[in-house]
Amino acid sequence: MIVVLVEHSQGVFKKKSLEAVLYAAHIAKEMGTDITAVAMGNVPDSEMQTLGAYGAQKVLHTTDARLDNFNSKAYAKVVVAAAQKENAKVIIGLHDTTGKAVMPRVAARLQAGLVAGAVGYPDLSKGFTVKKNVFSGKAFAFVNVTSDTKVISLMPNTFPVVKGEGSATVEQMEAGLSDADFSVKVLEVSKASGSVPLSEAELVVSGGRGLKGPENWYVLEALAQELGAATACSRPVADAHWRPHGEHVGQTGGTIRPNLYIAVGISGAIQHLAGVNGSKTIVVINKDPEAPFFKAADYGVLGDAMEIVPKLTEAVKKFKA
Ligand code: FAD
């Protein structure tokens, strides 16, 4: 059996979780086994049944008001309970903010080997060898997991999400949660401010320290609005509170793979690239011809962001008219 942790936003499963279920389905087929998804919090049964269209046979649902806010310790306990109930040999989550905190805990509790940041299916002809990112996505490693139970966190947006057919059965699961599992308190949840959720966005306009201050962000927001894009930023920008932390992408922030990533006034440090170098097309706007980001760009525009971005916005407006 394979157990896969699925995440939702206000009762609707995130695209990256559907990707995780499809990923698990591919492995399950090769191993000749089934998939059970683990969902937490307030999700309607009708939504859980839809996981059947991505390959899950069953969904274990744990409802507890305390799970409405993310809590790595409690989430891990629920996943472990599901894995033990199903006698799962493979447990899959995402290599996102949730999975990075939960899956190592799950692996430790189950004394399982962990592949963090997988970007390929396990090669069963070579034991259980999984391709994963290393050095912030600059290189790959192939890890053979030899433990009896295996835990994988999948890099989001690695595989396409294609809906099939089918309906999953839903079962309530009591995970034995106690107050001690909620010893870590979430004080604040900071959400990206744009109308398009960053992790799901096909188009992203992102800004760095080259924007000079939060008062100049209106130029990026205007472009994002014309494009129907989400907004993102580099880490120093979030650290300086110019933008909310939910917009920070990179090694220590979100990983995104949009169709188009427009990087404005961002130097292109390896830690930033780690979160965006899977984007299909990268456009870099920077006034320094030596900015490292130009090496990773499909298109580069050399010049001052405050001059170029408004012109680009006008061009998009005209194109749409
Ligand atoms: P800068 O490096 O200051 O670059 C600003 C750029 O703007 C320059 O290239 C400059 O030429 C250009 N510019 C200036 N003025 C203009 C203008 N008027 N018009 C156009 N261009 C202009 N960073 C992340 O982003 N995400 C991470 O997850 C992350 N994790 C990290 C983890 C670790 C362990 C460490 C050590 C660092 C991490 N960093 C991360 C920081 C990273 O190393 C860089 O310092 C950071 O990405 C730089 O941000 P920046 O490009 O916005 O700023």
UniProtKB/TrEMBL annotation:
Q: Which co-factors does it depend on?
A: FAD
Query: Electron transfer flavoprotein alpha/beta-subunit N-terminal domain spans which residues?
Result: 2-186
The record's listing under SUPFAM superfamilies reads: Adenine nucleotide alpha hydrolases-like, DHS-like NAD/FAD-binding domain
Task: Decide whether keyword Metal-binding is in the record.
Answer: no
Which processes are annotated in GO (biological process)?
A: fatty acid beta-oxidation using acyl-CoA dehydrogenase
* GO MF, any single term: flavin adenine dinucleotide binding
Q: Which InterPro entries match?
A: DHS-like_NAD/FAD-binding_dom, ETF_a/b_N, ETF_a/FixB, ETF_asu_C, Rossmann-like_a/b/a_fold
Give yes or no: UniProt keyword Hydrolase. Answer: no
Which named protein is this?
Electron transfer flavoprotein subunit alpha
Taxonomic source organism: Flavipsychrobacter stenotrophus
Taxonomy of origin reads:
Bacteria, Pseudomonadati, Bacteroidota, Chitinophagia, Chitinophagales
